[in-house]
Structures are given as C-alpha cells and as structure tokens.
Write a structure and sequence with these properties.
The chain is mainly alpha-helical. It has 3 domains: 70 residues; 99 residues, no CATH class; 61 residues. Helices cover 70% and strands 3% of the residues. The chain contains 10 helices and 2 strands; from the N terminus they run αααααβααβααα. It has a two-stranded antiparallel sheet. α1 crosses α2. It is rod-shaped. 16% of the residues are buried.
Length: 248
Amino acid sequence: MPLTRDDAEQLLEQLYATAEVLGSEIKPAAATLMIRDLRNYERAEVEQALARCRAEINGRLTLAAILERVPSANAYLSANEAWALALASMDEAETVVWTEEIAKALGVASPILTEGDKVGARMAFIAAYEREVEQAKAKGSQPSWKPSLGHDPQRREMALQEAAEAGKLPAPRVEALLPPPEKPVTEEGRAQVREITNHLRDLIAGRDQEAARRREEQRQKQEARRQELVAQAEQRMRERNNATQRRA
C-alpha cells in the first residue's frame, strides 16, 4: 500500500536521522523529493532499507542506496537473468513465466537472433530490457508475471509450480493451467473396466467365429462345385467311350 501522509512524515524524520548517523546532511527540499520518490513502497520496506543503510554504508545517503535495499524495488530480473529466460522461451517445448518487459525486449532482439548474431541480439535485448524496466520503475510499477506455455506437459507443470512457489503466479491460476489430478481407481472402476474388456473380447470372438463359419461355407461350396465338375467330366468321358465302341 502506498505511503500515507502520516507514513511520509514519520519516514521523513527517519531520513534526517539516518543521514545524521552517516555523517551527512539532507536539505528539506531534497528529503521531500526522496520521500516522494519512495511513496509507492511499503513503509516497512523503506524503514528496513534505511536500517540497512545505517549498517552498511558510510558517507552521503542517496536515494539509489535506499532503493537498492528495498526488496520490491528490485523485483525485476537483472538483464542477464531476463536474457536467459528469453532464450529459454525460444524453445517451443519450454514453458516460461516472464514479464511484459522481457517479451518486448525479445521482440527487439529476435530479428538479430534469427540472423545468427547471438552477441548482437543479447546487446540489443539488454538495452531494450533496461529501458523498459526503467520506464516501469519510473511509473512505480511492479513486475506482472505471465505464463508462456510450451507443449511439453512435464516442463509446463514444473515451470508453473515453481512460479507459484516464488509468488509470481497465484495458485488458482496455476491450477487452471494444469490438467486436473488423476482420480484413484476404485474397485468398482476396475470391475467396470473388466466388464467392458470381456464384452469387447466376446464381440471379437463372435466375429472371428462368424468369419470362420463363412470361410467354411465358402470352402464347402467350392468343393461341391469341384466335385460336380469332375462328375461332369467323367460322364462326358464315358459317353465318348461308348460312342467309340458302337462305331467299332
């Protein structure tokens, strides 16, 4: 939740005190600007960042030093981390969970990468990504993580579960993107499977028997026809023999 007016006043006092502990001073106008630039962060985060500044640095207190120690101000991936994720997304089997800034930067680098210039593509990506992140931070935006689903179901499940554990995606969203868990097979279910299997086996056996019966009928018909032809041939032979004997 952004800072309230009371939060801002309390943090302003802590800002002056932290600068004094570090042996420096902050003018009221500069301190007010620093609080204004910190207005989109949680008060507890800013207080923790100031405490770390008092313990870790010496000399002048700067806004950059404070922001380096605000966790949500550093929620974006580094340019090299984002580049590795962008490269993984080029594999159609891979599922990645990334931000709009990474997707836009990859759009800039993709034509160069397609030409085979990986070094040039990386340089173009990093420049584009850092520009997108700076613009987002200037607006006080936080990373908005979105899944890009690959076709490998095992990799998809692993990537989505890792994103849920890291707090990048809400659990209900992950559940909606994954197939429902398999239900355990009950004894009733096994009985149904056996019944269906037996029915199919009977059908197949019945068809086999019917086919065998038809083949036997066909064989018998062919044999009867053969016997008929043989008898006809023998009859003609006898008739020719009788005719020959009469002429003799």
